[in-house]
Amino acid sequence: MPAPKKHPSARARTNRAATAADISFVGAPEVPAMPEGSDWHPAAVRYWRALWTSEMSPEWLDSDYDNVVICAYLYHDFWAAESAKERKDASAELRLQRKSLGLDPMARRSLEWAIKVADAATEGGARRGRTASAQPDAGDDPRLALVQ
Fold first, then answer.
1. H helices then E strands: how many in the chain?
2. Domain residue spans in the chain?
3. 3 — phi, psi (to 5°)?
4. Helices (H), the chain
5. Residue 26 CB contacts under 8 Å (≥ 6 apart), including other chains
6. How much is the pLDDT for 82?
7. 31 near 53, Cβ under 8 Å?
């Protein structure tokens, strides 16, 4: 006879990461000014704003600010690159920095960050624009035209 299972509160493993969080958009956060000393590419300026207004930004600590600055510089370097090699180098490092901030789907999954979406968007597959297909009436079957 197997031993009875422990009460859930007494179990050692919960298989939930310490970084796990349900993230939802809380409104328009304050966007810090971009670092001085660079003639920023317009795409990097848009990216800076997008980073700070993303759903993930409330999860960042003050110590993550430097990583966001690094992302902005790398994004600037990517768009200002004069050769394919420079662009490739910037994109490779940018990919790593984005991962550390939870800015791609796999990084959010490994951090166990779940972005909450509006209730209406999650009902019936509407999130991706899918709607339930309407079933035609039995009299509307085009195959019946072949046998009649």
1. 6, 2
2. 34-117
3. -70, 145
4. 42-52, 65-80, 84-100, 105-111, 119-122, 144-147
5. 58
6. 94
7. yes
